[in-house]
Amino acid sequence: MRVLVIGSGGREHALCWAIAASPLLEKLWCAPGNPGIAAVAENLPIGVLDFPELVAFAVANNVDLVVPGPEAALVAGITDAMEAAGIVCCGPSMAAAQLEGSKTFTKEIADAAGIPTAKWERFEDAEAAREFVRRRGTPIVVKADGLAAGKGVVVAATEDEALTAIDAIMERRVHGEAGAAVVIEECLVGEEVSLFALCDGSHAVLLGSAQDHKRVGDGEVGPNTGGMGAYAPVPAFPPDAERAAFEQIIRPAVAAMAARGTPFRGVLYAGLMLTADGPKLIEFNVRFGDPECQVLLPRLRSDLLPALQAACDGELRNFDLRLLDTAAIVVVMAARGYPEAPERGGEIKGLERAAAVADVQVFHAGTEQTADGRIIAAGGRVLGICATGDTLKHARDRAYEAVDRIDWPTGFCRRDIGWRSL
Length: 422
Prior knowledge:
Elements: E1 2-7, H1 10-20, E2 27-32, E3 42-43, H2 51-60, E4 65-68, H3 71-75, H4 78-84, H5 98-101, H6 103-113, E5 120-123, H7 126-136, E6 140-144, E7 153-156, H8 159-171, E8 182-186, E9 191-200, E10 204-212, E11 215-217, E12 221-224, E13 229-232, H9 239-259, E14 265-275, E15 278-285, H10 293-296, H11 304-313, E16 327-335, E17 347-348, H12 351-355, E18 360-364, E19 367-369, E20 375-377, E21 381-389, H13 392-403, E22 411-413
Parallel strand pairs: 1-2, 1-4, 2-3
Antiparallel strand pairs: 5-8, 6-7, 6-8, 9-10, 9-14, 10-13, 11-12, 13-16, 14-15, 16-21, 16-22, 17-20, 18-21, 19-20
């Protein structure tokens, strides 16, 4: 098969790494890719939202399968664009991608399908939203309705925090048009986990679950980020609980999407809160998580490529995915100043030494290669140091051994990834 992956981050590096291992692969490209991805795929200088160029390349090069990584491309309709040109694309249509593109859409699907979730209200008027907060009290959660790169959610412990969030999202439009409306919902209490499934429009198979670490500092302090690390499996979410959540949340969502004429194909990612009353849906995402993808794929015993093809062909009814009986952990290394103002340009040395640690993969997320071959930081979250092991502790020890071999003075990481379990 000839495969094109779209994206440039750690998730896409992990996808390319897994797909490159398939005996079915003939040729692999990634647009635009990054220096780490270049080791397993040919990078293309095409942006993730440059649909005409992406489609033209896929057609000209007889691409058999397109695998989009980032949500922005899916919500903007990359699957529709590819399929209009006769190219198979493993992702939801623009209509189905509204599961991530609109918090309201997700809530309506959840209510229609009987999926347990937080009580909610939608507001397009800022003063009405403020009045609702004053009436309901705190803690309360304020969400920008549209895509906000993972940063459009505020868990407000006080009324002032909630009112400030409404002002920032709706009045000052810090997330652009994503803040034209907000969803305000009750604050769920418990541990968060991420549950993943591969869907073909009518059927779904489990891809596994993971737990990420959203705050920038050890002990879950500091601002929310795109994710500072993740691990799997999650002891607080054993296989029987995982299967029950799959039946109560994933399957009803797939059925509801099909019933409304927007069947969901691709990876469906449910963010869950493990409450005292059982798992409840926080949000749906329409792609692999980042950094969760980096711990899911190293645990996958099955070949990923035919699984993605089966999702596109509507053949998951009798399909199964097998996982290794190992643990995996990824430690994200970020640039100093992240998430507010990450420092760019710092040189990163020692990547080969880090990758030499047993069962370690170094995934590039925000790197560039200079003309003289040096690797430098070019983003906020820059590297994902992933390790597997017989136990989570074994995997974590390996990951941090690899981290300590990297020479990057302007980089940092959390030192407590996996702390809830260890």
